[in-house]
């Protein structure tokens, strides 16, 4: 499964400053009946990501399903050309250029579309509106790209837009976040609802807000707890389900350590990458310990359904997520529980922080064997007992080889120490004071 997204890039031909563009964008939203808001009260949030020379401004929002529909309005209401891009499963990208009046001017494809008849783009239109060298575009179209993202990046170089693959939740000086709410109306949104959940439920438990929207963090010694709220459209319904409840809230979480070499990926990864375990995946993996089913759905036009979904998700957090976090108090208990949430980091270096790693590994593999015997998939492994014994010996031999080589051993410890220091600095920048 490849990557998919929809995104809009606005041609800031006059290279307005960030302040100037933000004002024009805010004026546009005011004309639509919105007013500027604080994050906690906002119904809408946009991220404006500027290219280095401010020639392009990429407009990002949490739910990108309506990106192409909004592209036309952005072009018309801002009086600027808009390049709307849809990436489909990393296989191909559809690029549509919108003129100043909001009408689509032309469309081109990069990669290999799934349909037979692909319309030919008009080189003259693209050259006239973007001033690009069409010969370079043809080189990209004829190139051999494993992923369509690579072709998009090359196209971005031609037009001077380095943010072709930008994701919502950007950091840095080139990104500006703007919040809006309906003028004269206070409406409950999932964002405002979870900011209330944070202050009433998570903050008393030691969690703090981070720069990533609706991602909450708790630091306990060497352990980091993360809870992220994600929202998406629900498209699949079982017979008899209420199709009005078409918005789906997902409670995603993970525990990690300060020794994780790629800790920032939990803060910067796009939605549904699997780095944080979502509700459905966690319940499926631990269904014997979980009572009932959890799906947090609501109708965008009915605040009562949203309140119900939020209450259900809080119940899930307090009943299952927090107790799991509470079991993890140090590196040893972290290693002991990683199987519960399918941790995807490199665990091997952590064994050097455990004094009794031999006894720990034996006990862990013994418990794994007991779980595997009752697992419908793992129990099918031929000679399961022998396989567990071999994996135990392989891990112990690997650890012993490092410990016996003092230089390698010291290198591991030094690397762990450096990683911890780096992560502490990174986390300081993530916290919203």
In which order are the strands of the major sheet placed? Answer: 2-8-3-4-1-5-6-7
Q: Largest sheet at a glance?
A: 8 strands, antiparallel
Class derived from helix and strand content: alpha+beta
The figure for the number of domains is 3
What share of residues are in beta strands? 15-25%
Low-confidence sequence ranges:
none
Helices, by number, come to: 13
Q: How does this model look, in words?
A:
The structure is a single chain. With 433 residues, the chain is of the alpha+beta class. It has 3 domains: 5-181, no CATH class; 185-330, no CATH class; 348-430. Helices cover 40% and strands 20% of the residues. The chain has helices at 18-31, 67-78, 123-130, 134-142, 148-159, 190-202, 265-268, 279-285, 303-327, 331-337, 357-373, 384-404, 406-430; strands at 5-11, 34-36, 44-50, 56-60, 82-88, 92-98, 104-111, 175-182, 208-209, 215-220, 223-233, 247-257, 296-298. The strands form 2 sheets. An 8-stranded antiparallel beta sheet has the order 2-8-3-4-1-5-6-7. A 5-stranded antiparallel beta sheet has the order 9-10-11-12-13, with helices on one face. A hairpin with a 5-residue loop joins strand 9 (208-209) and strand 10 (215-220). The chain is globular, with a radius of gyration of 25 Å.
SSE map:
Elements lengths: L4 E7 L6 H14 L2 E3 L7 E7 L5 E5 L6 H12 L3 E7 L3 E7 L5 E8 L11 H8 L3 H9 L5 H12 L15 E8 L7 H13 L5 E2 L5 E6 L2 E11 L13 E11 L7 H4 L10 H7 L10 E3 L4 H25 L3 H7 L19 H17 L10 H21 L1 H25 L3
Antiparallel strand pairs: 1-4, 1-5, 2-8, 3-4, 3-8, 5-6, 6-7, 9-10, 10-11, 11-12, 12-13
Helix pairs in contact: 4-5, 6-9, 11-12
């Amino acid at each position: 499964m490849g990557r998919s997204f929809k995104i809009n890039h606005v041609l800031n031909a006059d290279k307005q400053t960030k302040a100037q563009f933000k004002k024009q964008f805010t004026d546009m939203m005011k004309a639509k009946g919105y007013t500027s808001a604080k994050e906690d009260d906002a119904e809408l949030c946009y991220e404006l990501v500027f290219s280095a020379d401010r020639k392009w401004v990429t407009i990002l929002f949490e739910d990108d399903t309506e990106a192409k529909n909004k592209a036309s309005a952005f072009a018309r209401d801002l009086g600027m050309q808009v390049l709307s891009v849809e990436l489909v499963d990393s296989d191909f990208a559809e690029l549509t250029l919108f003129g100043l009046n909001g009408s689509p001017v032309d469309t081109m494809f990069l990669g290999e579309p799934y349909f037979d008849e692909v319309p030919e783009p008009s080189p003259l239109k693209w050259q006239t509106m973007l001033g690009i060298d069409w010969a370079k575009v043809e080189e990209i179209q004829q190139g051999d790209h494993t992923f369509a993202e690579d072709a998009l990046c090359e196209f971005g170089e031609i037009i001077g837009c380095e943010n072709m693959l930008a994701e919502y939740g950007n950091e840095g000086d080139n990104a500006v976040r703007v919040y809006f709410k309906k003028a004269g109306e206070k409406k409950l949104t999932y964002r405002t609802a979870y900011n209330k959940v944070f202050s009433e439920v998570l903050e008393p438990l030691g969690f703090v807000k981070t720069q990533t929207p609706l991602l909450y963090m708790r630091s306990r010694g060497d352990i980091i707890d993360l809870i992220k709220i994600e929202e998406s459209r629900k498209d699949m319904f079982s017979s008899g389900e209420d199709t009005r409840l078409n918005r789906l809230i997902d409670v995603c979480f993970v525990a990690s350590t300060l020794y994780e070499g790629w800790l920032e990926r939990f803060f910067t990864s796009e939605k549904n990458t699997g780095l944080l375990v979502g509700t459905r995946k966690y319940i499926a993996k631990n269904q014997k310990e979980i009572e009932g089913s959890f799906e947090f759905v609501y109708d965008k036009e009915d605040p009562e359904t949203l309140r119900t979904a939020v209450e259900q998700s809080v119940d899930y957090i307090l009943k299952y997520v927090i107790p799991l976090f509470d079991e993890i108090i140090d590196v040893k208990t972290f290693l002991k529980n990683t199987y519960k949430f399918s941790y995807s980091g490199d665990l091997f270096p952590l064994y050097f922080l455990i004094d009794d790693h031999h006894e720990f590994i034996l006990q862990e593999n013994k418990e794994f064997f007991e779980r595997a015997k009752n697992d419908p998939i793992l129990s099918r492994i031929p000679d399961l007992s022998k396989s567990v014994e071999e994996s135990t010996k392989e891990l112990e031999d690997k650890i012993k080889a490092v410990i016996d080589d003092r230089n390698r051993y010291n290198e591991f410890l030094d690397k762990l120490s450096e990683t911890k220091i780096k992560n502490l600095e990174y986390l300081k920048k993530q916290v919203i004071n």
